[in-house]
Amino acid sequence: MKVGLFIPCYIDQFYPQVGIATLQLLEKLGCEVDYPKGQTCCGQPMANSGYEHLTHACNSLFIDHFASYDYIVGPSGSCVLHIKEHLHDPEKETTAGEIRKRVYELTEFLTDVLHIESLPASFPYKVGLHQSCHGQRGLGLAQMSELVASPFSKPEQLLRMVSGLEMVELDRKDECCGFGGTFCVTEEAVSVKMGKDRITDHVKHGAEVITGTDVSCLMHLEGILRRQGATIKVMHIAEILNNQIHEQANS
Amino acid sequence: MNKQTADHATLADQFNANEPRVNWHDETLWWVRAKRDRMAWTIPEWELLRETASDIKRHALGNLHEYLLEFEENAIQNGATVHWAADAAEHNKIVTDILLRHQAKRIVKSKSMLTEECHLNPHLAEHGIEVIDTDLGERIVQLAKEPPSHIVLPCIHKKKEEIGELFHEHLGTPAGNADPQFLTAAAREHLRKEFLQAKAAITGVNFAVADTGEMVVCTNEGNADMGAHLADVHIACMGIEKIIPQRKHLGVFLRLLARSATGQPITTYSSHFRKPREGQELHIVIVDNGRSRQLGREDFRNSLKCIRCGACMNTCPVYRRSGGHSYHTAVAGPIGSILAPNLDMKANADLPFASTLCGSCSNVCPVKIDIHQQLYKWRQVLVQEGYTPAGKTVAMKMMSGVLSTPAVYRTAGKVGRWVLKALPGMANNRLNPWAKQREMPAPPAQSFSEWYQKNKQSK
Asked: Which of these, A158, A226, A238, B197, could form a disulfide with B439 (CB 3.0-4.6 Å)?
């Protein structure tokens, strides 16, 4: 099984440790992983701002880099959803369609393709899970609280395999953090308020670490936490799932 | 159409100046959302019910021309007079003419978002006709000279103490009394007089049943009934999308409406108006006002399924923290943001951007409108039509250029990370909206791709 590793642009630039953890985790679980050099961005920042027509070059780059893999896996629900919903290229539409079907967010790849039932990971901390909206409502990583339907959560299912990890319950288990792409700067006041309220929920329930499947949401929450001088840590789920026994948080 | 003074972001920023008040607003509406959840869970077939409602509406919208004519024919047979209005101006003129003919100078009106959309009250005031809104929440905002901030809970942005002050000023209640029960009793007494004196009553319409020509109006206060039963003239104003084909379909919609809106099993009053009583005139004004244009937009057609429950507002994390007035339209929140650009693209170009596209709205919606997908699509339309700031277009073109060229992207990333490290003040200052209340990410020594090149066999 050949996996093409999709590392979104802002993870590449600002959170290399998330890319490294994703790569190591997939290799540890027996995948042959390749990182196609020269990949940049899925095009979402432009598209969500109303400029989908400016994403053709990004789309065509993405198709060139990832066409040859059995699976494409990325540690970001939002970017993966964008590819799934909007990757098109009039000249390579068949390939684009195949990629849309073969692209997976990391946790759904672990639960649905690799069928992981146990993990050699340890993380002895109280962890709050931030369910990022695009992963949850868009990709269906977890049941939505709005629906009258049986609950499930793929990220939580994996976190429960980590030894020593204690999940905290939240008052609002799937409320948006307010990142929202360019929303975070164009609607700064509401964006920050939403982030602060999410943090308050995690702190109230004793979380020592906030985790999630989307670095964009976590970057926003981390930015607020660091400004507040708070001690609570933010980590991507790949870093926790890849955390070996005896390693410390954020080491 | 709308007298816009500021965009959503500016108004939301002002709303957020008082954080405890934002918390209170957020928690109040979240409480309604939670109540809706509990009530939905009492119906095991809830999701099927939503699907069914959505299908009925799709069918009705697809055959609107036939159902509207069927409704008209039946309504006329029942003794009503049916009027057709192409837009807000025609609607206002029809209503004004009827009222002037009856020399009605002071009339009562139960809740109708359509008349808000058409700005009927100020229009009637210009003709010397005073409207008393009889829905308690609407009466409160009317006394405060404000528009409703929510379609179901018009004065949800007001605290009881503020309502006490308003009532003291306008209805003569004792200063400092903010007891909800006392204030409601005072309003009841005040409104009772208005009901008894009013020659004419205007109501909205929740559902217009094609096969019987009847209208259903849902209220919790019975104010629509009180108005319509006491007045000589009843004017019911409805948008063309209020049509449902058959009476039996009410069994689907009435189960969904109040549960979604307020978490009640059903509204206290679900009143059926079919015939005028002896000596009464019943007028039905059927209004288009842009709806047929929206019907013609394939991507946005589904927005006309809306039954005005307000669930998307209660669940919207942005609405709860920006307040209904920040949307500067008659219908606020997520649904308002996909309806308003159809009415006036320029004035409402900001609204589809007032969302994180989290998708909660689409999933509470009792008629399954793909609200967040439509917000995304409106953004594309508004950019194409040239309603976004020129600066944003330049920035997006630059961003697209960098992200489409791997070498430029690599260099830009390197420079960016170096700047953040060497000159943190370049980014961490108040001119950067990110950094006003947030730190920039700490720049790492190397990017992932640089790490990969050093540590892994490159391809």
From this structure: A226
